[in-house]
Design goal:
- With about 475 residues, the chain is α+β, with helices and mostly antiparallel strands.
- It has three domains: about 120 residues, no CATH class; about 120 residues, no CATH class; about 150 residues, no CATH class.
- The chain has 16 helices and twelve strands.
- Strands 1-2-4-5-3 form a five-stranded antiparallel sheet, with helices on both faces. It has a five-stranded antiparallel sheet with strand order 6-7-9-10-8, with helices on both faces.
- A hairpin with a 5-residue loop joins strand 9 and strand 10.
- The longest helix has about 40 residues.
């Protein structure tokens, strides 16, 4: 029984197989309803709570049971399900299948399976009706200007949100399942003629090649798609906004949606995608360019300021004015710990406050971050545990970290910041410069789904004037360099 793969002509035998595989009747969620449909018997398989039972009753069961007793008597047995689909059932999305494993997977996803006696194929109908979160405002990518819609956990709703924006006949959706015993349904969306076919095949192949027991989230799918698992820089860009995902499609990228995840994954991606925000394209080009420059300045401060401070203080004090150097030495003389340990301690404390404020529920998180920062900072300076100037340096660096639009990239930059702090404290500005150069070279050699991560700057590629500076819209007419060019 367990070795059966294809449906058999005997309806009772098929019902026994499904009952054994799904654990019915002990499994109370399994619905297996056998009924008379004209001149032959049929059955439906569904999962309670995942299927819209009202739609099954009104559009499948009742029309089939209302057929005359002689209906379908002259139909060949192997065409009985097709007869019911053409004369009784009024559900639009449908697909004929013969594989039992696929039918069970479809039923577990909320679809309804219709079988008939003597027929070796069954019809899968989309009658999903489970509860889902409504479309709400974005949480992580909030904007002042622009749409205020975000994806939710229902993959069909997310596809609909994208199709409302990208109303083009070239928009294609492919459903694939990945994972081992616990399958996860994904959707690949791309524009035919814009996205490169080799790139689409590469991403599809990597997702299908998953040998893990399960891949439930967008983060799991990202690890399947990326080229360099050990890199600090994410090689795919994630978003919870349908408008941003639509812009990725227009550039020739492939968007991957995962059932049960409110995030869309786009590949290939560049480093510049991680630094852009939806606000940039929702306002005049002068304003968007100014905000990008401010954002890049904040990221530079976040990465370099603590390391430069330690390098100057430990190895190059002549770069500071005598008055400032005297003030730094006076405050540092009262601190009982080395300046490197002091910097690492304050950086860790800032990250702890940030993480605690993020995880604390509701308004408590905001209050926790403010109170902890004020109390701990003032108490640390009063107790001569840290110097006031270092506290200012760490706070300014932490504020610069909030300018990083991508949450994943922000974590990677924090790790890089620690490496630069150690380099500056142990080797001065020379070691700091060499470490920064090594990190830059490592970033330049990375790729995303076969496409250079730092392109179109290096290596140089044709592109729109929308990298660091955003020029007016009339100048932005070229496709992205990784799109298909004919």
């Amino acid at each position: 029984m367990e070795g059966a793969v294809a449906l058999t002509p005997a309806l009772c035998r098929n019902i026994e197989i499904f009952r054994a595989r799904l654990g019915a009747p002990d499994n109370a969620d399994v619905i297996l309803r056998r009924f008379r449909s004209g001149a032959f018997e049929s059955a439906v398989l569904a999962i309670d709570g995942m299927t819209d039972t009202l739609a099954v009753d009104e559009h499948i069961l009742r029309p089939c049971q209302d057929l005359p007793e002689t209906a379908g008597a002259d139909v060949p047995p192997d065409e009985r399900v097709a007869f019911l689909m053409g004369h009784a059932v009024s559900v639009l999305p449908m697909k004929m299948k013969t594989n039992i494993d696929e039918l069970i997977a479809d039923a577990l996803s909320g679809q309804c399976v219709l079988m008939s006696d003597g027929c070796t194929s069954a019809c899968v109908m989309d009658t999903r009706g489970f509860e889902k979160r409504p479309v709400m405002r974005p949480e992580a990518e909030q904007v002042v200007l622009g749409p205020h819609q975000s994806f939710n956990e229902a993959i069909r709703t997310n596809i609909t949100l994208l199709r409302r924006i990208v109303q083009r006949e070239e928009l294609t959706t492919e459903f694939i399942s990945t994972g081992g015993a616990m399958k996860t349904r994904c959707a690949l969306l791309y524009l035919r003629g814009t996205a490169d076919e080799a790139m689409i095949a590469r991403i599809r192949r990597r997702i299908l090649a998953c040998d893990s027991g399960f891949a439930l989230t967008t983060g799991d799918i990202e690890q399947l798609v990326e080229d360099h698992p050990l890199s600090l820089i994410p090689q795919c860009v994630t978003t919870e906004r349908p408008d941003r995902a639509a812009s990725f499609l227009a550039e020739g990228q492939v968007v991957v949606l995962t059932d049960g995840s409110p995030l869309a994954l786009a590949a290939p991606a560049t480093l510049w995608h991680q630094l852009h925000t939806p606000d940039d394209s929702s306002m005049r080009w002068q304003y968007g360019t100014f905000l990008r420059l401010v954002r890049l300045l904040g990221i530079a401060i976040h990465l370099l300021l603590p390391g430069v401070y330690l390098a100057i203080l430990c190895f190059h004090p002549e770069l500071l004015s005598p008055m400032l150097l005297t003030s730094v030495y006076e405050t540092s003389a009262r601190v009982p710990i080395p300046v490197l340990a002091e910097a690492l301690l304050m950086t860790l404390a800032f990250d702890l406050i940030n993480e605690a404020g993020l995880r604390a529920p509701g308004a408590l998180g905001n209050a926790l971050g403010i109170v902890s920062g004020l109390i701990l900072g003032q108490a640390a300076v009063s107790a001569d545990i840290v110097s006031p100037l270092l506290l200012i340096i760490v706070a300014a660096s932490g504020l610069g970290g909030f300018c990083v639009p991508s949450y994943a990239l922000g974590i990677g930059l924090k790790i890089a910041q620690l490496a630069l702090i150690l380099a500056g404290a142990l080797g001065g500005l020379y070691a700091l410069g060499l470490t920064a150069l090594a990190l830059s070279c490592a970033a330049c050699r990375l790729s995303s789904a076969g496409s250079p991560l730092t392109a179109p700057v290096t290596p140089r590629r044709p592109h729109n004037p929308d990298i660091l500076l955003r020029l007016p819209l009339r100048f932005q007419k070229a496709r992205a360099f990784f799109a298909e060019h004919t």
